[in-house]
Each structure stands twice: as C-alpha cells, then as structure tokens.
Amino acid sequence: MVLASISTVVLGSIAFTIFWMLAVFPAVPFLPIGRTAGSLLGGMLMIVFQVISPDQAYASIDLPILGLLFGTMVVSIYLERAQMFKYLGRLLSWKSRGGRDLLCRVCIISALASALFTNDTTCIVLTEFVLKLARQHRLPAKPFLLALASSSNIGSSATPIGNPQNLVIAVQSKISFIKFFVGVVPAMLVGVVINIVFLLCMFWNQLTPPPEGDEPEKQSETTVTEIEVETHTFSPARMSHPSPLQHLQPSPLRTPAANDVERNVPCPNAGTKRGCSDVSHIKMCLTKKELFLKSFVYIVTAGMLAALLMGLNMSWTAISAALILVIIDFKDAGPCLDKVSYSLLVFFCGMFITVDGFNRTGIPSEFWDFMEPYSRINHASGVAVLSMVILLLSNLASNVPTVLLLGAQVAKSAAAVSPSYESRAWLILAFVSTVAGNLSLLGSAANLIVCEQARRSETHGYDLTFWAHIVFGLPSTLVVTAAGLPLIKG
User: Fold this and answer.
1) CA 67 to chain CA centroid, nearest Å
2) Other residues' Cβ atoms within 10 Å of the Cβ of residue 468
C-alpha cells in the first residue's frame, strides 16, 4: 500500500497521535478526559478529517473480539460470585512456607488464570486480593504486584483468549485454539519460570516478614484476617474514575439471610425449639442452593473451555456460557452485568476505528516495507529484528494497536518465504507483543489495571511507580523473550 495524499497522512497522524497520547497518558493537564474518551476522540477525528468514511469506521469494529471479551468478563464475574477467592486463598495459603513460596504461588496462579480468563480480567480480580494477602503475611506489596502483572502477561500469551491482542491474532489468522496453545505454551512455561527467578533474585531479602511489632510504618495499622481474604469481592475495572458506589454492591450469591446465619445473628424465635428448627432449615436450604449454583458455574466454565479446545466459535461460545449462567442464576442480571467493564469495550471500538484510519494513511505499510528485508523469520537474525520491532512498537503504541498495524504485514512476509512460516509468524507476534507488556508500566492494560486498582484500594492502597516497574520489567522482558522465541512452533 502506497502513502495516501499528504493531507490524509498529516491529518491521520494527528488523530492517531492524540489517541496514543491519551491512551498512554490519560490525565494530561490540557485534556484529562481518560483513555475511553480519548479512544473515541481519535476515531471521531479520523472520520471528521475524512481519513475514513463512517461506513468504513463501523466496518472496522471487530464484533467477534468484543463478544469474546464481554463473554469472558461475565463468566469471570460469576466465578467470583461462586467464591473463587475462598478457594484461591486456601490454595495460596495451604502449607505456605513463607513469602518466597507465596510469591511463586501468586505467579503460577495468575499465569494459569490469565491463560483461561484474559490477563486484564485476572488483574481486575486479583489485585486487591493480592494486596490483602501481602498485608496478611506482613510482606511488602511491590514484589507481589509485580508478580501479578508480569505473570499475568506471560501466562496470557498461551491461548487465544488470554489477552486482547491474541484475540485479534486468532480471529485474523484463523489458527485453532489447540494449535495456538500447543505452539506457544512451551515458551510461556519457560517465561513464567524465568520471571519467578528474576522476582526472587530482586526481592529475596524483602520476602521475609519482620518480627512481630517491628513492621515498618508504611505497612502500618490495618490488619487483614483470613476471613477478610476469603470473603474478598472485586470491583469492576474502569478506564477512568471509579464509581463511588461500586464497593457497596453485595454479592448476589450471598443472600442476606445466609449472611445472617453465618454471622450467628440471633433470630426472634431463637430461644424456642421451633426457632432453632427454622434457622437450621433455612441454613440447609440456602446451603443446598448455593452449592448447586457454585457447582454449575464451574461446570459451565469447564464446558466453555472444552468447546474452545474443540475449535467452536470463540466469541459465541463465551457469550453462550455467560447467558447460561445468567439464566441458571434465575434473577435480575443487572448487578452482575454492572460489573462488566463497558468502558473497556468502548475503548476497543474507538481504537479499532483509529488504527484502521492510521493504516489507511500508508505509514505502517511504508515502515514495514523498510524493515521487512531484515525481519524474515527463516533465520535467527530476522526473528531477532522482528522481535525488537514488536517490543518497541508495543511499548510506544501499545500491543493491540501494534498487532492491528503489523499483523497482516508480518504474516504476508512470512508466507512469501514459505507458507509453513505463516502460522509461526502469527504466534511469534502473539508471544512477543504480550511479553512486551512487561517492559514498562505503560506496556499493557494489565499493568495499568494493577497500578490503578492498587492505588485506589481504600484500605490497602499502594502506588506502583513507572520507575519501580521498569527496573524489574526491562531485564525480565528481554530474557523471557530471548528464551521463549526458539520454543515457538507454528
């Protein structure tokens, strides 16, 4: 594709620059409108500047990707309501041998969870939970937040549903779920191990809790109990400012009556034989209903994963699983659907339009035409150059726009060398663009979610800074990428 007219190139570049600036720095002083509004602004400017037409803008929105994101978010919300945290808490604490063991468990569990339910969802769900775990064990928050963000990114590289850029690659390349998984999982497993080693080496001395009564002031006052960890609930992710009411919503699977019984709230007839019988009967009925609902949530989730492995349509499989859970719950789905991050879905709509407009300027094609002779994957140096290009662009323009900009070009170049290289090129793009998210705090949405959720936690807030992240992220990303590339098979 040749460059468009000068006016189209200039105006399209301006629109894309505004989108990029607000996506990376959502609170710039002269336009603090946030990422979602910034994404829509970029898309609108592409239309106003006539880089693309309104019909082309609508056509650029990838509905299968939005459907898959929506479905997996709803399923994850029902898993949280089914007391997934209680079991996670027990798994993380079971025969724990101290802070180092706990850090390894956080890495492994977040990596596995991200492969199944996207890295963004895992970070939304686990950030405040991990903060509470660290506080409960009187350990610093920083290594555990880094472990959660980095392991979630690496783990999510193994499946098409692990992260948004993988969804884009799976849809565009038509690589099956099982082929994608088999091709990337060896590199993912090695990457998780290397990441754990880096974390342990950097924070070895900090992972021993201080003696009782000798904690540093900043870990201060708030004591977290095991019950508080097990009964933790998460709040929906926001691409801007959270609602002040979002922490006040009760978990619908935990009815008031059940909570009263568990907290031993006395009933009016508690002193009579009938009163005791009524309480026991209510408790038994509620326990049976909860057990049925919890079991069904896990059964439906397992069925969804089995359907994905069988190669069924990914977006409709996730949406179907979500609707089955809504129907079986047999009550107003509003409280559940309120937790879906609609702002994230809207952000993706604006981003699809903006990136498609930027592609039409011809700049990405010209850039790739310059780099393509040095980036062919039939030799090691070409793979290295391609990986560096993906790493840099993923941290400058973010990983999803990078995949949208380069995906088709990289696959076409690989297919020109040999058709057998095409799927490997897609998988290299998936792995490297995902691991690239660990290089800096701005490298992936998952990092930003961890940072924002941790900072805004009402009782356990922690500010993970850009420099604190990059000191760990830069060496870890380079080593994980270098170690994983030879293991990717197309």
Assistant:
1) 16
2) 15
